[in-house]
Design a protein that fits this description.
Helices cover 41% and strands 24% of the residues. It has seven helices and seven strands; from the N terminus they run αααββββαβαβαβα. The strands form two sheets. A five-stranded mixed beta sheet has the order 5-2-3-6-7. A two-stranded antiparallel sheet has the order 1-4. Strand 2 and strand 3 form a beta hairpin. Helix 1 crosses helix 2 and helix 4 packs antiparallel against helix 5. The longest helix is centred in the N-terminal third of the chain and has 17 residues. The mean pLDDT is 95.
């Protein structure tokens, strides 16, 4: 679902907006000045979009395009852009997810893999948990011979505040089944490095 298709809940928008006016005032701003007057409502709508993953079922997404297929080689969907909010500071982290699985009689639509990444990214997250959640969802729903997920991301909580290290990339990975074999992991890593 893209932003054009998203319909925020107006009651929730207003509830978030009321709290944001307090936050703006507590930081020393005048929440009624021209540039900020509609900001609380915009934040209310944005927060609903940025956290819409709580209202989506990633298992159902995969199951909506599940096909019997006798294919037992690696399926790789790489360079899936994502944007998430770090649960520690509510600042963005963003990057690319690379997902592979080895089917065991069933495949899913390729776009469904990208949608599963979005579902978990559109929640308050940490990169480590998101990596594991994507892997577990695919393993649970498709029951493949193995799954591997690698995520590479930049974290604004490291770049804008705290240690302030620009251009640092955090990489996480998790895997199951056939990917416990080093040669299988290495094949996946070669494929995503191109």
């Amino acid at each position: 679902m893209n932003l054009q298709d998203f319909q925020p809940n107006q009651d929730l928008t207003q509830a978030i907006a009321d709290k944001m006016r307090d936050v703006l005032t507590l930081t020393g701003e005048d929440a009624t000045r021209d540039g900020l007057r509609r900001t609380p409502e915009r934040i209310g709508e944005a927060m609903q979009f940025l956290t819409k993953g709580y209202q989506e079922d990633p298992d159902a997404i995969l199951q909506s395009a599940l096909f019997e297929e006798d294919y037992r080689q690696m399926v790789v969907v790489k360079d899936i852009d994502f944007y998430s909010l770090c649960e520690h500071h509510l600042l963005p982290f963003f990057g690319k997810a690379h997902v592979a699985y080895i089917p065991n009689g069933k495949v899913t639509g390729l776009s469904k893999i990208a949608r599963v990444v979005d579902v978990y990214a559109r929640r308050f997250q940490i990169q480590e948990r998101m990596t594991t959640q994507i892997k577990e969802c695919i393993q649970r729903t498709l029951n493949p011979l193995g799954v591997m997920v690698v995520i590479e991301a930049e974290h604004l909580c490291m770049q804008m505040r705290g240690v302030q290290k620009q251009h640092s990339i955090t990489t996480t990975s998790d895997f199951t089944g056939a990917f416990t074999r080093q040669e299988t992991r290495e094949e996946f890593l070669r494929l995503i490095r191109g």
